[in-house]
Structures are given as structure tokens and as C-alpha cells.
Design a protein that fits this description.
The chain has one domain: Rossmann fold. Helix content is 33%, strand content 29%. The protein is built from seven helices and ten strands. Strands 6-7-8-3-9-10 form a six-stranded mixed sheet, sandwiched between helices. Strand 1 and strand 2 form a beta hairpin. The longest helix has 18 residues.
């Protein structure tokens, strides 16, 4: 494993204004994730996990502090560069699969290639990912013909099709039963171990967190 940090935050803070009250969603969070690591971020609701996720994915900006992804300081990015960053550097997996119901699994994946101006074809490497996920024979089916676990696997494939450096997963098993949760978490671990994919997974579930190579905990906007 390369010891160069893929993700690094220093004294990261985010304050929201709610009426006359300042809400400190992050309060000096320091985090380091190495290239090729699978790290889970564990914490209760309101601990700051989702705010951290949104900042790392450039979906929102911090109030103060620094964020470096693969050595690049995110504060230096223009709005256009942030959009490009989300297309190429980061893959997102959410609790809700967010698949378009009128499109097949294959087209739900290809639309991400289209948005990123990539060739609309699957590389041999990506075909191997479909095999790892066990959905190669489900590509022509629409979401309604897939189980919840299969839909989440399609969502993971969609997140990986543009070969992002980082996979950000926010409660990826929150809508799944225990059997499918274990299967999806095992697949994430397999992608990390076999392909060296850097994964940061947010969860409130200690059992889910145990699939990662390392777990960190958040409380009151800080990493403890």
C-alpha cells in the first residue's frame, strides 16, 4: 500500500446558520486516508458524518480548514473544476440507489460515462468489476426487475465505471436486509482488496464498519 494520503483534512470546520443559532456540523475534524485503504467512518446521527462526506465529494465547501485529495487542495478549485472533480475523481454510492426507473441497468451506468464525456463502452477491466459484483447478466434489466441488493450493486458499478480514485459510500446498506447487506459489504471489501480501490464508507452500524480495514469514530463534529 502506498503511504501517500489520498484524503487529508486538517482542522476542518463547517458551520450552518439555523435562524439565530450557529450549528457546528464539523468542529476541527482531522482525517487521513491512504491510497488503497478501506476506511469506515462511524457515528450517530448528527455527529458530522454526512457533512464530512459532502465536503470530501465537493458537494459543499467547509467554513474553515483544509481538504487535500491526492495532494490537491480543494480550495483552489473553481466551480467548473469541482464539477469535473466529481465526474472523474470520486464515485458516489448512496443509501438510496438513485437508479432511473425507465433505463436498463446498463444505461443507468452508461449515463455516467456520457455526463463525463467518456466513450460509451465497458473496458475489460470494468467487465471484471461486473463479474465481481455478480451483475453482468442483469445489464438489460430495468430496476423494477432487480432486487434491492442487485440495484445497489448496479449503483456501485455506476460509481466505478469512470475509474474514480475514491469511492465514497454513504450508508450503502441502509435500505437492505441483513443478507444483502453482508453481500454488498463483502463486495466492497473485495473491490478494495483485489483492485486496491480507496473506499471511505459512512455508517452508523458497527457491524457494517467491521468490513473495512480501519474504522474511525465521529462525535460532535470531531474525529475521536
Amino acid at each position: 500500500m502506498n503511504e501517500t494520503p489520498m484524503i487529508e483534512t486538517r482542522e476542518l470546520s463547517k458551520t450552518y446558520r439555523a435562524g439565530d443559532v450557529d450549528v457546528h456540523a464539523l468542529a476541527g475534524a482531522n482525517l487521513e486516508v491512504l491510497k488503497g485503504e478501506f476506511v469506515s467512518v462511524v457515528g450517530a446521527s448528527g455527529s458530522g458524518k454526512s457533512t464530512l462526506f459532502n465536503i470530501l465529494g465537493t458537494l459543499t465547501t467547509p467554513t474553515s480548514g483544509t481538504v487535500r485529495i491526492d495532494g490537491r487542495d480543494l480550495k483552489d478549485l473553481s466551480n467548473a473544476e469541482r464539477a469535473e472533480f466529481r465526474k472523474t475523481m470520486v464515485g458516489f454510492v448512496f443509501q438510496k440507489y438513485n437508479l432511473l426507473p425507465t433505463l436498463s441497468a446498463e444505461d443507468n451506468i452508461r449515463i455516467v460515462q456520457y455526463i463525463a464525456n467518456r466513450a460509451l463502452e465497458f473496458t475489460p477491466e470494468f467487465e471484471g468489476i461486473l463479474d465481481i459484483l455478480g451483475i453482468r447478466d442483469r445489464m438489460k434489466r430495468k430496476p423494477r426487475a432487480l432486487s434491492g441488493g442487485q440495484q445497489q450493486r448496479v449503483a456501485i458499478a455506476r460509481a466505478l465505471v469512470n475509474r474514480p480514485r475514491i469511492l465514497l459510500a454513504d450508508e450503502p446498506t441502509g435500505n437492505l436486509d441483513s443478507k444483502n447487506s453482508a453481500a454488498v459489504l463483502g463486495l466492497l471489501r473485495d473491490l478494495n482488496q483485489r483492485l486496491g480501490q480507496t473506499i471511505l464508507m459512512i455508517t452508523h452500524d458497527q457491524e457494517a464498519a467491521s468490513y473495512a480495514g480501519r474504522s474511525i469514530h465521529m462525535r460532535d463534529g470531531k474525529i475521536v
